[in-house]
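[step 3/7] inverse_fold.run input=structure_tokens len=149
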């Protein structure tokens, strides 16, 4: 088997493996940051998606996060009991429930997003602003294209 030098290894390695490693390190960081908060990393995923998709239905959340509707119901119940979300019936479709953040949920979500932005700034400290924007755009495209597969 051929031995690769570092440069070859960098380009040979699939991007998803780098993304996985970044996520592992970020989750470790975030776990420490959330010690005094009443929220888990899994629950944060729901808050983020409700933040970015205002008045999203439970079914849409399940589709977006690739989880069952039963799991969404379970997670939303926890978030609702803590006062982070509200659910209301869609006036146009009475069988559909729409989810939104409460002021407390919005405050927590923004606080964690700010923590995340500071983490990213530290991780990307050696990358100039133009490269940072290109990187963000490429990651967006990467994520967006996963919906098509």
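[step 3/7] decode complete -> sequence:
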């Amino acid at each position: 088997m051929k031995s690769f030098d570092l440069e070859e290894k960098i380009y040979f390695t699939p991007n998803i493996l780098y993304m996985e490693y970044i996520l592992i390190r970020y989750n470790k960081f975030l776990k420490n940051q959330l010690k005094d908060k009443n929220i888990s990393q899994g629950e944060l995923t729901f808050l983020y998606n409700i933040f970015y998709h205002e008045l999203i239905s439970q079914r849409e959340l399940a589709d977006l996060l690739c989880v069952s509707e039963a799991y969404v119901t379970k997670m939303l119940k926890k978030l609702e009991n803590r006062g982070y979300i509200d659910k209301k019936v869609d006036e146009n479709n009475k069988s559909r429930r729409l989810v939104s953040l409460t002021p407390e949920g919005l405050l927590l979500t923004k606080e964690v997003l700010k923590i995340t932005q500071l983490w990213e700034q530290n991780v990307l400290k050696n990358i100039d602003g133009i490269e940072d924007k290109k990187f963000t755009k490429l990651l967006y495209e990467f994520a967006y294209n996963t919906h098509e597969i």
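[step 4/7] annotate
The first strand starts at residue 56 and ends at 57.
The chain is about 65% helix and 10% strand.
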